[in-house]
């Protein structure tokens, strides 16, 4: 996790622009066969990666809160570039939070990251259950005098059994939260048993179903999601035509309730308190 001290008088905007985007470590993929012909880019540096990251930065720059999956935190394959920091700086996001779930030394640093226009009050890293380790959740809290907004960033497992246990864990984490956003590459569709379970346990909802984001060159699967509690009034939902990864970015605009429109309460240290669950 990395961030700068909280801004004095920072507030949540009344209208919050959200994005969830799996960027595939900055690798541009436009055809299935490139998974094989250009698969080396997942383990070795590539001269096209930084120019593509700049295009991604331009795409995300119009949003307030961006949840990114499949970043690299600085290893051989990324040219030792911390991609969360690079995108935050290039897109002028003042606050960034990162969770590295599979640190493989110099070879790969598999991470997720949250970029924000406003500072968090607290950040919690959670290791998600699963037979194969390496999946995590980043829980970021924005506290105002009247209420809290909790944002959870996820990249779930490939197996349904693991996803069910991971979402059961998340449901327990946010069970008492009135205002919550869950976003990420969930690797399951809108009507899957996993999401039906999460909706029943938490009250989260997906305002528009079946918005395909994968693969980016011919979207057929809706595995990227932004889920919100009923207290957040959804204004727009859209998939952007930005084929800079093997996923397309999913976006949403929500109007926040009055209780969330006060100043964000900073931590005692002036930085968000980090804990690990």
UniProtKB/TrEMBL annotation:
Which SUPFAM superfamilies does the record cross-reference, listed alphabetically? DNase I-like
A GO term from the CC aspect: membrane
Per the database entry, which stretches of residues form a coiled coil? Answer: none
Molecular function per GO? catalytic activity
Could you identify this protein by its name? Endonuclease/exonuclease/phosphatase domain-containing protein
Residues forming the Endonuclease/exonuclease/phosphatase domain are 19-247
Q: Which domain of life is it from?
A: Bacteria
Q: Which InterPro entries match?
A: Endo/exonu/phosph_ase_sf, Endo/exonuclease/phosphatase, GPI-anchor_lipid_remodeler
In which organism is this protein found? Spiribacter curvatus
Which GO terms are recorded in the biological process aspect for this UniProt protein?
GPI anchor biosynthetic process
């Amino acid at each position: 996790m990395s961030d700068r001290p909280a801004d004095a008088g920072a507030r949540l905007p009344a209208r919050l622009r959200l994005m969830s985007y799996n960027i595939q470590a900055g690798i541009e993929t436009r055809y299935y066969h490139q998974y094989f012909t250009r698969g080396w880019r997942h383990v070795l540096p590539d001269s096209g990666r930084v120019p593509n990251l700049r295009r991604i930065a331009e795409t995300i720059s119009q949003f307030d809160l961006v949840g990114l999956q499949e970043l690299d935190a600085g290893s051989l394959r990324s040219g030792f570039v911390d991609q969360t920091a690079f995108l935050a700086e290039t897109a002028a996001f003042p606050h960034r939070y990162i969770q590295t779930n599979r640190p493989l030394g110099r070879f790969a640093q598999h991470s997720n990251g949250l970029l924000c226009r406003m500072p968090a009050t607290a950040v919690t890293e959670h290791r998600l259950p699963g037979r194969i380790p390496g999946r995590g959740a980043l829980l970021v809290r924005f506290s105002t005098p009247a209420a809290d907004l909790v944002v959870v960033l996820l990249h779930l497992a490939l197996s349904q059994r693991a996803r069910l246990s991971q979402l059961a864990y998340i449901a327990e984490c946010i069970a008492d939260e009135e205002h919550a956003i869950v976003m990420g590459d969930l690797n399951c569709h809108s009507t899957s048993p996993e999401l039906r379970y999460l909706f029943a346990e938490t009250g989260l909802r997906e305002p528009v179903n079946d918005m395909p984001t994968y693969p980016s060159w011919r979207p057929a699967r809706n595995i990227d999601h932004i889920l919100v509690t009923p207290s957040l009034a959804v204004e727009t939902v859209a998939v952007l035509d930005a084929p800079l990864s093997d996923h397309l970015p999913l976006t949403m605009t929500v109007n926040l309730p009055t209780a969330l429109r006060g100043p964000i309460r900073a931590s005692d240290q002036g930085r968000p308190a980090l804990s690990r669950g």
